[in-house]
Every structure is written in C-alpha cells, then in structure tokens.
Design a protein that fits this description.
The protein is α/β, with parallel strands linked by helices. Helices cover 34% and strands 19% of the residues. β2, α1 and β3 form a beta-alpha-beta unit.
Length: 154
Amino acid sequence: MSFTTNPPSVVVNSPTMSIVNSHHVFSILFAEDDEDDREFLMHALRNVGSYHKVHMATNGKEALEILFNLSPEDGLPCVIILDLNMPVLDGIQTLEILNHKASFQHIPKIIFTTSASEIDRVRSLSKGATDFVVKPSNMPDFVKTVEGMLRYCM
C-alpha cells in the first residue's frame, strides 16, 4: 500500500495547559466523516485547554495516509480517534490495518461513535481498540469526553 498525500493538520491551543505537558505539543489523529463532529472536536479541544496538533481525516484510508506520511519531526500521534462508520475504510477496518503495523501497535486507538450497540463495542475491542466511546449529544458532555480521551496522551 503506497500513500503520497500530505497530512492535513491544525494546531489547537489555549492559554491553559491543564491536560498536557506544557513543554511538549502532542498530536492526535481524528478520523471522522461527519463535518459537524470534526467541528465539535475542535471546539472541545479549545475548551479543554490543551495544546495539540490535530491531524484530520474523513475516512480510514485518509487516516492511514496521514500516518504513513508523517515525518520524524512530526512524530506519531499520542492517540488515534476513529469513527466507527466511515466510507472507504471504516473504523474496524482501519484498526485491523493499524494493529498489523508494529510501529502503530503501541498507540491507543479509540472508536468514537454514535452507536451504543454492545455488539459494536465488543467487536471494536476484540479488533484492537483501546477504548469504545459513545459520542455525547451535548457540548458540555462532548468536552468532558474529549478531555477523557486526551488522558491517553499523558
């Protein structure tokens, strides 16, 4: 599999450094096909008071392209957050590929989904997800949830 695109990314910062070490910028990878959910994540990161470089992908294939094209200066993300249901490659398919690459096996991978299905949860965890998180329906809970996922970066 060959990937050649440059990773899209954005840096989110806030004057408060409550979640991450202020001497290091952590990066996260977020694969989500829903534009509103991508915007919610960015809003939540600003509210959490973290300083993260965020690599955004709209599907699993783009997420893999980003990972395979990161430079040594970029470093690997401290956490990978994957939507379960995405076009091209979904969250489970992306997990399977990531977990077969030694260089990505140590990175926590979170399935972040609207599905509260026990079948989806068990399947995700059995395929190598570190965690399975149901997307909250309101912004205060969304911010708390993102804050919890960022704890994997500490």
